[in-house]
Amino acid sequence: MSDLLVAAPLRVEAALIASAARGTFVQKTGMGPDKARSAAQELGARDARAMLVLGFCGGLDETSVPGEVIVAEEIYAAADENHPEQPIRCDLAYQLLGRLTGLGLKVRVGKLVCVSHLALGERRAELHAGGAIAVDMESVWLAAGAGDRPFGVVRVVLDSPSHELLRPQALGGALRAALALRKVAGALHDWAPGD
Question: Which residues form the domain of 17?
Answer without folding.
Answer: 2-188
